[in-house]
What we know:
Layout (H helix, E strand, L loop, with lengths): L12 E3 L8 H7 L9 H18 L5 E4 L3 H12 L5 E5 L3 H12 L3 E5 L9 H10 L5 E7 L1 E2 L4 E2 L2 H11 L4 E5 L18 E5 L11 E5 L1 H9 L9 H8 L10 H17 L1 H22 L2 E2 L11 E5 L6 H12 L1 E3 L10 E5 L6 H17 L8 H11 L6 H6 L1
Helix pairs in contact: 1-9, 2-9, 5-6, 10-12, 10-13, 11-12, 12-13
The protein binds pyridoxal-5'-phosphate.
The site of pyridoxal-5'-phosphate has 12 residues, from helix 3.
Amino acid sequence: xxxxxxxxxxxxxxxxxxxxxxxxxxxxxxxxxxxxxxxxxxxxxxxxxxxxxxxxxxxxxxxxxxxxxxxxxxxxxxxxxxxxxxxxxxxxxxxxxxxxxxxxxxxxxxxxxxxxxxxxxxxxxxxxxxxxxxxxxxxxxxxxxxxxxxxxxxxxxxxxxxxxxxxxxxxxxxxxxxxxxxxxxxxxxxxxxxxxxxxxxxxxxxxxxxxxxxxxxxxxxxxxxxxxxxxxxxxxxxxxxxxxxxxxxxxxxxxxxxxxxxxxxxxxxxxxxxxxxxxxxxxxxxxxxxxxxxxxxxxxxxxxxxxxxxxxxxxxxxxxxxxxxxxxxxxxxxxxxxxxxxxxxxxxxxxxxxxxxxxxxxxxxxxxxxxxxxxxxxxxxxxxxxxxxxxxxxxxxxxxxxxx
Length: 404
Ligand SMILES: Cc1ncc(COP(=O)(O)O)c(C=O)c1O
């Protein structure tokens, strides 16, 4: 087997904000014989997964599964609902919003891209003003990245929905939840989202390779009129075949086994507990960053991300050289600075299959790396995080909860 890890003992710490650590339970589920994807057992698998996904997206509507990375689900959201030359409203919250915008350009959409500082989320007041200005109702969709994985900033989706409602604008609302689903509270139906885009490799604790569109009734109606070319990404054919438990193409059978197990794990822990765990680890991480005397990239506490923290490197210190040192010495991967943040930011992923001691080890690796690289800092980061973990109460393990 290809040797990916040159360290002789212990586990690699994969603390990038996705792909995340895959639980052994999920790996074991994936490691089952591939079955006939047109056979009776497969239909049962499909029905159970589609049922579980409804809980996770918090929707009663259909969720379409693609054997694709998140980028495929971005494309599916656009090509199923829009027509060439349609105007869409997007926000420059960071690298991923910029990439989604570039895709919209390539597909022949006309993007109004509201500039941003890569440290803030979407401003609901700007959404309202932009839509109110659009008297002719030319915007066909408002597109928001819920959790900007490049910056650790979470936009307030419910507040954006309220802004759209106040303007009375009929545009579709599409949200990328690739690094928030199953980590940060997200409610497709309640928040009136028309298309939710998601991926397997973050909060869902799976390897990369699956992605999703949750689809509202309004989006389904729009898909009947939409004229962007589409074939593989068509929702209607998949939704129709899913009713029988099958797919119009060969599905990623073994990843679906993993998804089935991941849904079981999320149900056992309970979604609210999953969200609370992420918030608690995020707060402990921010306390560590402040304890080191460094800054979190996200400006607004109401937009702090539960799934990752982007840390600003002091001037004159290269974040990538720091990351390389941490990998070489401690076998831990931290997230790189993306796009315009290259070299100036590193990202700590604290999402997915993760617990208090994994967080402690992660923060120790960062603190030791800062010392080795002689990055000016105080030695108070890990101590501050430990104090917070203690004061906020270590949650009972699921085994203890079951026994209680
Ligand atoms: C918020 C966000 N959107 C989109 C993507 C693109 O997804 P993928 O790399 O799975 O194609 C990512 C990937 O990390 C992401 O974090």
